[in-house]
Amino acid sequence: MKHSLIIGRYGELGLKSPRVRGRFERKLSSNIKASFNCEIDINQARIFIFPENFDEALSKLHKIFGIVSFSPAISTHSTFENIEKTLSEYTDKLVEEGLIDSETPFAIRCRRVGTHDFSSQELAAFAGAVVVRKLNCPVDLTNPKLEIFIEVRDDETYIFHEKIKGPGGLPLETQGKLVSLISSGIDSPVATYMMMKRGCEIIALHFDNEPFTKPKSREKFNSIIEKLEEYSSGVSLRTRIVNYGEYLQKCKNNAPDKMTCILCKSGMYQIAGMLASAMNALGVVDGNSVGQVASQTLPNILATRDNLDVPVLSPLIGMDKVEIEKIAKKIGTYDISKEDDGGCNAVPRYPETKADIERVRFAKEDMNQEEELNKVFESIFVNNIKQ
Ligand SMILES: Nc1ncnc2c1ncn2[C@@H]1O[C@H](COP(=O)(O)OP(=O)(O)OP(=O)(O)O)[C@@H](O)[C@H]1O
């Protein structure tokens, strides 16, 4: 069907003060324009999008945060005569596409903004009669098989039949910047997606544990980033890789074996915190969910965050694996994360599951953690070309 525009809707933005809403709308508009070629007009809480290529626009709008739903539509002038003509042509197209025939129960849903010499009910009755005259199909306002929406906004009237779900959330880059700890597992890409959905700009930080892990882990991280970039239109998703193998070896040499994973994670948070300060990010994101695996017991999670001076956000903390996997599948990172990468050989046979903060502090001092991490941190910028 040939459409003349796409009408986008935003949810939460509508609740903001006019000044904040204006800023968010401008950001949303520039994020959409960075995704595909189009003209945009935002008014009365609607985003009127005029794309060069409709198919491209429809596939990309699924991945732009801030859009709650969107409808390909045709427009006409707000007179009964014009509405009748356009609705009649629109109905022909619906018939051609097999969406309505003489048996299809349908409903007209009208909305009206502005001053007109007809009410929404009068227009709905008029428009319903146009369709019935053409097809003789039954009107069913309670349980229709097809709904035809007519939105009258001042002099323009829009006709459409679909409300396609968008990702919702807030436009990217309307909230602060965060450093996100992304492994090659299922959870951290989902945690990152959730913070992006809340409008946060992300610096993705990955620790490459070679020789304790295989190159496959880093390849998976790269593929995960490519997937997340699909949701990042208008805002660059920056990445930083840390060569962490040498530090891990020091943990193994100079601390009790049981402590390896605790010292590994606590080092990750410290480095992430330093990176956050260096890049003006406001916090750190991780993919922890309480009790999900032996390493994610509450004492371990808390002990690994000891002595951090940036907040850690864990959007999955209260979710179960099934819920997390469902999102991973929806956003397309699940299949990448599921690929076998051989895991991490640094994990001891009996890892600590009830970390005691005092003992963790001793272990950190014994291995000179602070000094070792400073060396690791300095190497980040040398190792990363992509800004
Ligand atoms: N190699 C890594 N690089 C960056 N962050 C990591 C790395 N390994 C773990 N993390 C962070 O620590 C969190 C907990 O790690 P843990 O080892 O328990 O989980 P995982 O199974 O490796 O990964 P995920 O939680 O992403 O499924 C991860 O969610 C992630 O935020």
Automatic annotation (TrEMBL):
Please name the CDD domains in this protein's record. Answer: PPase_ThiI, THUMP_ThiI
Q: Record's family? A: Belongs to the ThiI family.
| One GO biological process term | tRNA 4-thiouridine biosynthesis
Q: Which organism is it from?
A: Candidatus Methanobinarius endosymbioticus
Q: Which GO terms describe its molecular function?
A: ATP binding; CCA tRNA nucleotidyltransferase activity; tRNA binding; tRNA-uracil-4 sulfurtransferase activity
Q: Which residues bind ATP?
A: L181, I182, H206, F207, K265, G287, Q296
Q: Which gene encodes it?
A: thiI_1
Q: Which GO terms describe its cellular component?
A: cytosol
Protein name (record): Probable tRNA sulfurtransferase
Enzyme Commission number(s): 2.8.1.4
